[in-house]
Write a structure and sequence with these properties.
By secondary structure, the protein is α+β, with helices and mostly antiparallel strands. Helix content is 32%, strand content 33%. Strands 2-1-5-6-7-4-3 form a seven-stranded antiparallel sheet. Helix 3 (101-111) packs across helix 4. It is globular, with a radius of gyration of 17 Å.
């Protein structure tokens, strides 16, 4: 039986793997220090177990994540039918003295090797160090609008078939 929404086994699904190795931006949702929601587009790297993000060492989101590490992350293909990977988990922050290796890998994936390396060097010159944000998936969902739909659409489709 295929894995259901919420099952971590969905990370091995071809849709999830395509999103995790894509050049699409992730969108990171977290709770700001005043309790309001925030969503930011961000580069990511999948290390096979966790989603790894990089952030300037004084970025306000690091303070918010330290206070409340529960996050949601989505990676979606912008064409129809959309393919969407949804991840919920807990963020861990490590402050590094240099740019994280995962950020280097993501820069090269997004920009190509030469431009990625140039971007990393520019970042190193602007702010020493980096906040490395690691998200351990605790819940995974996939929407592909072919076999997997948002739950209420699936409910409506099932009800229509029984009539």
């Amino acid at each position: 039986m295929p894995a259901g929404q919420g099952d971590l086994a969905l990370l091995d699904d071809p849709v999830a793997q395509a999103m995790l190795h894509s050049r699409y931006l992730a969108r990171l949702a977290y709770t700001w220090t005043d309790g309001t929601p925030r969503v930011v587009p961000i580069w990511f790297h999948w290390n096979g177990k966790e989603v790894v993000l990089g952030s300037p060492p004084k970025a306000p989101k690091l303070r918010a994540l330290a206070r409340n590490p529960k996050v949601a992350l989505t990676i979606d293909e912008p064409t129809f039918p959309a393919k969407v990977l949804l991840v919920r988990g807990t963020a861990r922050i490590d402050m590094l003295e240099d740019v994280s290796p995962e950020y280097v890998a993501s820069a090269e994936r997004y920009l190509g090797q030469e431009q990625g390396r140039a971007t990393v060097e520019m970042i190193r010159s602007m702010a020493p160090g980096m906040g490395r944000i690691t998200i351990q998936p605790e819940w995974v969902g996939i929407l592909d609008f072919e076999q997997r739909f948002p739950s209420e659409i699936e409910n409506a489709m099932a009800a229509a078939h029984t009539q």
